[in-house]
Design brief:
Layout: E1 6-10, H1 14-26, E2 30-34, H2 37-43, E3 51-55, H3 63-72, E4 78-83, H4 88-96, E5 101-104, H5 109-124, H6 130-139, H7 144-154, H8 159-166, H9 170-184, H10 189-198
Helix pairs in contact: 4-10, 6-10, 7-8, 7-9, 8-9
């Protein structure tokens, strides 16, 4: 299905749009670029499918506001968000809004390509509750304290705040976070958050 391999790139930075488009084109994807979320929404009725790769902080509509508009219009296009700010609460909000993945700038080419392929695969996959069951299965090995730390992460709390809440040191929180990645098999923080949200944590 050719249309499913279209990547819609939304970024107000022309150089970034050109760079992303070139990289994706070289990997065999069809790309369409938009200078703003509004430009993309204007084109939405004619869009055949694919996935969306959007910056989160843009003039006018932000990436998160774009997602709200997409859902309000009944679109289930898979969305990958790019952020240059490492803003955990924003990332949590994005995941709760239904973002497939988020990546922090600057990112390596392979990180971007993996996120895009994951979004396109998710777009083509049938929907169901398998995701929730899989997420619960991957979280089952966590200790109660690890679940407490994960809940703090999903709430967007910094390590030192989680440490204060749980009466442990920030260094111990870091160790628990590393354990969370290992035990769940999550490749990055976006995947870990997605698992937690799918499992209803």
């Amino acid at each position: 299905m050719v249309n499913s391999q279209i990547v819609h790139v939304i970024d107000d930075d022309e150089a970034m749009r050109d760079s992303l488009s070139f990289l994706l084109d070289m990997q065999g994807f069809e790309t369409r670029v938009y200078e703003s979320a509004m430009a993309f929404l204007d084109a939405l009725p004619e869009i055949p499918g694919g996935c969306v790769l959007t910056d989160v902080r843009m003039p006018g509509l932000s990436g998160l506001e774009l997602i709200d508009h997409l859902r309000a219009q009944g679109s289930d296009l898979a969305v990958v968000v790019m952020t240059g700010h490492g803003d955990v609460p924003m990332a949590v909000e994005a995941m709760k809004a239904g973002v497939i993945d988020f990546i922090e700038k600057p990112f390596a080419d392979d990180v971007l390509l993996r996120a895009v392929r994951g979004a396109l695969d998710r777009q083509d996959a049938p929907h169901g509750d398998g995701g929730r069951k899989e997420a619960e299965a991957r979280l089952v090995a966590l200790s109660p304290r690890e679940r407490d730390v994960l809940a703090g992460v999903v709430a967007g709390k910094a390590n030192k705040v989680i440490a204060h809440d749980l009466g442990i040191s920030p260094r111990t929180v870091e160790i628990y976070r590393a354990n969370l990645m290992t035990k769940t098999g999550a490749r990055n923080m976006a995947e870990l958050m997605r698992l937690a949200l799918l499992a209803g944590l």
